[in-house]
Amino acid sequence: MPDREVCPQTLLLKGGLKVSKIIDKVMGVIGFEVEDGETEDRLESQMEDSDRIRRQKKANLLSLPTQRPVTMMLIKAKSFDEVESVAQNIKERRPVIVNFDEADKDTAQRMVDFLSGSVFALDGSVQKVAAGTFLFATCNVDVVGQINEEDREKAFFKGFSWTKK
């Protein structure tokens, strides 16, 4: 079978802006007449308008802050009754620092266990800040740094089974 030569007049150029004379005649017979000059000008102006609008939209973009300021809660826990309000703050994605100095050992252990579970459920982290003081942070807060091992050994909760390695 011989190779066919493609006539350059039958090709569509630049998204259909130029149409061959044969296609124009066929379209005219069907009832769809194409007016070369007006159609091309109209299509080009529409493309220019859409490009201009697209550039304007990009120019008007502003970066908006995605997060509101984080409020840190400081709580001095005395009884297990307070653990629900602390957990509610954690649930609302507020980091909480809790001081357990005034709570008895068993109650403090139960509270830390409960709050650790709450933070774990929200993909957060727990970090011991000082003797008897813990930071409960949710996943929206990055906690950087660490208390050294000497401070941990001197901690108030040193004798508790849940703080031993």
From TrEMBL:
It is found in: Cytoplasm. One of its GO terms (cellular component) is cytoplasm. Gene3D superfamilies: SepF-like protein. Keywords: Cell cycle, Cell division, Cytoplasm, Septation. InterPro entries: Cell_div_SepF, Cell_div_SepF/SepF-rel, SepF-like_sf. GO terms for biological process: division septum assembly; FtsZ-dependent cytokinesis. The keyword Cytoplasm applies. It holds the Pfam family SepF. It comes from the Bacteria. Coiled coil: none annotated. Its main location: cytoplasm. Cell division protein that is part of the divisome complex and is recruited early to the Z-ring. Probably stimulates Z-ring formation, perhaps through the cross-linking of FtsZ protofilaments. Its function overlaps with FtsA. Homodimer. Interacts with FtsZ. Belongs to the SepF family. HAMAP family: SepF (MF_01197). This is Cell division protein SepF. The lineage of its organism: Bacteria, Bacillati, Bacillota, Clostridia, Eubacteriales.
